[in-house]
């Protein structure tokens, strides 16, 4: 970005703050214009290199090199984070903020200067929805939950702004070749005589003829996505998929202007274990297809992994954490598609009313049936 001052490498917290070259206020990334915008004076600034996104534009790192701590120094960065005492989220904060709330669970947090040394992001999927659009998606979702407390719906609708958070993920690539042994089952039928109610009947009974087999399958896995955060339940983040990774941009800190970023809590090796579990499931499916027949049994699989590469990437999530009557409710919105997930709140009185109405309707139907007999 040609019209902005360079970053100061001595101050890690400056990475996500970009002063407007016109008035000095902070720029923020605007999803609508895909550029930096100053809310104070309306000035805008372009981000160099945007529009060149996609997996092909992102640099992959060698997995085994990273495990032996031989990554180049340029691939490592240090940021200042605060760790939530409740959910353990590691979220970056500006240096001039001393107390705030955790965006993941609404717990009060006193910020510290803890250093988080980690592998730099290689890719970022920029926000496409504004906070207003994300809030509209969340309130619409809440409106469909008839048994949700009305007070919570009103509180969420009128509450504070949602937080834009970049959530960390790993992606893994691997070339796999698997040799297997197993059995192919062919279904056939035999006619047997059985006795039912004192009568002899002829019935067809399914049997399986098994034949030993062996073979090889190969598959290249591209961008296996693994959540690197432990702050949100995995069932929420899984439900936000799919992510349009083809629109990912090479990482530039300007995309984070006005947003927060969570440091990864799932280390690289643990992340690959999750990815390997996914790969093994897909390989097992490929083997069953290769075995063919009507039934399949897999006895052994020996998988050789070729070059394994990875990336640390950031994906956009709008997040709301509300405390209502002593309970914390969290809602997450895919910052690209508007898909919503969260704790499902229940209203005891709404459920009671529904039960009473159901009993009244059932009694009315019973009375009508009895009257007609």
Explain what you see.
By secondary structure, the protein is of the alpha+beta class. Among the domains are: 221 residues, no CATH class; 28 residues. The chain is built from six helices and 17 strands. The strands form four sheets. Strands 4, 10, 11, 12, 13, 14, 15, 16 and 17 form a nine-stranded mixed beta sheet that branches. A hairpin with a 4-residue loop joins strand 1 and strand 2. The protein is extended, with a radius of gyration of 28 Å. It starts with 26 loop residues before the first strand and ends with a helix. The N terminus is likely disordered.
Topology:
Elements: E1 27-30, E2 35-38, E3 44-45, E4 61-62, H1 63-67, E5 76-83, E6 90-92, E7 99-101, E8 108-110, E9 114-119, E10 123-124, H2 131-143, H3 150-158, E11 163-196, E12 199-227, H4 234-239, E13 249-250, E14 260-261, H5 268-291, E15 295-324, E16 327-334, E17 340-342, H6 348-372
Parallel strand pairs: 10-15, 11-14
Antiparallel strand pairs: 1-2, 2-3, 4-15, 5-6, 5-9, 7-8, 10-13, 11-12, 11-15, 15-16, 16-17
